[in-house]
Amino acid sequence: MVLRFMVHSVKELYPDLQEIDSRDELSQITIAAPAKTIVHADLVRDLRDHRYTEDAGLYYLNPDPMSKLPTGLHKIDGPDDVTQMVSAHEEQMTKICHLYIVNGSCSGRDPEALIP
Q1: Angle at 97 between CA 93 and CA 100, to 5 degrees
Q2: What are the CA-CA distances from residue 54 to residues 32, 50, 57 (Å)?
């Protein structure tokens, strides 16, 4: 399975964040290798062209159809998180992964803390 990433760049995790949001910048990358071979360091390197910096927060949206923003976001901190992301997409048989690069002061905040 090859994954295509829809990359959302937002300043913070808004409580009313939508999948396509007018407050974010959207770009796209495709990794042409099988999803199981995606390496955290390579993903981070590829995202540098999409406004990712070392101090930004990086999240993926759980592909489960019942998953909603912002509570369905899972932080990517390392290789184990990338493995979980790939497994979740394989389980749901989805090829599009929504990544959220969060550059604002809320990047370290747990998305569940944003629920009113």
Answers
A1: 155
A2: 24, 12, 8
Distance CA 49, CA 64 (A): 28
Which of 31, 47, 29 is closest to 86 using CA atoms?
31
Structure tokens belonging to residue 32: 């042409």
Q: Look at residues 103, 112, 114, 92 and name the one whose alpha carbon lies nearest to residue 47.
A: 103
pTM higher than 0.85 for the full model? no
In whole angstroms, give the CA distance from residue 89 to residue 66.
14
- pLDDT tens per residue, range 45-88: 989 888 898 899 999 999 999 998 888 999 999 999 999 999 99
Residues 6+ apart with CB under 8 A from 93: none
User: In the block, which residue shows the tokens 């009313």?
Assistant: 16
